[in-house]
Specification:
Ribosomal_uS3; 2 helices; ribonucleoprotein; single chain; 4 strands; structural constituent of ribosome; alpha+beta; Ribosomal_uS3_C; about 130 residues; ribosomal protein; Ribosomal protein S3 C-terminal domain
Length: about 130
């Protein structure tokens, strides 16, 4: 006999999470024990399933294992952490990630001041008066 499926998956899951992943999901499907096929899912951490960030943050791998009884299918999804340098994970932060900046120092006036603005004088164009002979 080999290693039990559940024990092997939990070991791999723990190893992936200790390696610095933000989340992980392992799905094993097939004849795990007995003639009836079913699937087991092992999940840990944070996993996003929809939207454009899936293309940057999620690594997916699928493998088929040939056994005496039949084929086991194994899917592994790993969610990478955000990395501003872009080495361990994507540079773009998640869209729902909120960063709070420190407020700028605001200089308050000591006393209220008012500026009195005079109305601009409108100059009326002077029309020359031409005497009419008549």
């Amino acid at each position: 006999g080999g290693l039990a499926v559940r024990r092997a998956c939990y070991g791999v899951l723990r190893f992936i999470m200790e390696s610095g992943a933000k989340g992980c999901e392992i799905v094993v499907a097939g004849k795990l024990r007995g003639q009836r096929a079913n699937s087991m899912k092992f999940v840990d951490g944070l996993m996003i399933h929809s939207g454009d960030p899936c293309n940057d943050y999620i690594n997916v791998a699928t493998r088929h294992v040939l056994l005496r009884q039949g084929v086991l299918g194994i899917k592994v999804k790993i969610m990478l952490p955000w990395d501003p340098k872009g080495k361990l994970g994507p540079k773009k932060p998640l869209p729902d990630n909120v960063s709070v900046n420190e407020p700028k120092e605001e200089i308050l006036p000591i006393a209220p001041t008012s500026d009195i603005k005079s109305k601009p004088e409108v100059s009326v164009p002077v029309v020359p008066v031409v005497p009419v002979d008549g």
